[in-house]
Amino acid sequence: MLEISNTVTIPDAEIEINAVRSQGPGGQNVNKVSTAIHLRFDINASCLPDFYKEKLLEMRDHRISKEGIINIKSQASRSQEENKEAALQRLKELIQSAAIIQKKRKATKPTKNSQKRRMDSKTKHSKTKNMRKKVDSSEG
User: What domains can be seen in the chain, in order of their start residue?
Assistant: First the structure.
């Protein structure tokens, strides 16, 4: 069982874990042993509360497909058990991140003094640029 919070847990039967061969260099170990882990979790078919399901399906995360299936691949370690733990930890963090409610942003206005400082710096920069221009000798 994967414990998300004090009240929310996911049974192992709902998490599909497959061992596959890792990619990349590694010699004989990579070619012989299936140490990478593919984790699949169906949000809609899970026993998660509706609040979590809605938030997860709204998230714009590349690991969540349009059908509502979370795909996580872990292959950082040479140990299958460590990769399994890492994949489960990432699933737990993803579900926990869905429960965090973002604060509404309050629109603010710049202060009068900050607006004045901004305009003064623009004027000063403009004067510096004008001083660098070529002097027109035809006038005068």
Answer: 2-99 (3.30.160.20)
